[in-house]
Amino acid sequence: MTNTQPKKLIKNPIHFLSLGFGSGLSPVAPGTMGTLVAVPLYLVLSHYLSQTGYAIVTCVVMFVGIYLCEKTTRALGVHDHPAIVWDEIAGYFITLLFVPVTFFHVVLGFVLFRLFDIVKPWPVSVIDSRMKGGLGVMLDDVIAGLYALALMQLYLYYFA
């Protein structure tokens, strides 16, 4: 199946997840919408899990994402279709690893992650353009999340 519209895939649980529970179908800024979906998920997870538990769930989200994004990429026949936003969810989760749960940190993490995801500094831009498949879809957002995490940790060390 190639050149399929993402809306047609939403009933399949694999695609439903990779499309960010439908948020990736937004006609405006699907990546931002996918990241917005990550916010309440993060809040629930951080409330019920220890930092170690949250880190484990984040790793699972990353590795499961490779599979999910691969399946949806193949179904759509397009590498890294904008509707695929599971990678944004994973990237945002990474951004907030070992960060206190406050309104300010949730918003700062959102802004930093979106900045790195949109600007795509090296090597994010190289990975985004050269790596294909589920790993390629996930890896650029994982690295963007790591950049945002590094800035979050620097902020916490020097200013919090």
Any idea what the shape is?
A: globular
Major beta sheet, specifics?
none
Question: From the alpha-carbon coordinates, what is the Rg to the nearest angstrom?
Answer: 15 Å
Number of domains: 1
- Average the pLDDT over all residues and give the rounded result: 94
Give the tally of β-strands: 0
Describe this protein's structure.
By secondary structure, this protein is mainly α. Helix content is 70%, strand content 0%. It is built from seven helices and no strands. The chain has helices at 13-18, 30-48, 51-76, 86-95, 103-119, 124-130, 133-159. α3 (51-76) runs antiparallel to α7 and α5 crosses α7 (133-159).
Keywords:
160 residues; globular; 7 helices; mainly alpha
List the helices and strands and how they pair.
Layout lengths: L12 H6 L11 H19 L2 H26 L9 H10 L7 H17 L4 H7 L2 H27 L1
Helix pairs in contact: 2-4, 3-4, 3-7, 4-5, 4-7, 5-7, 6-7
Short description:
The chain is 70% helix and 0% strand.
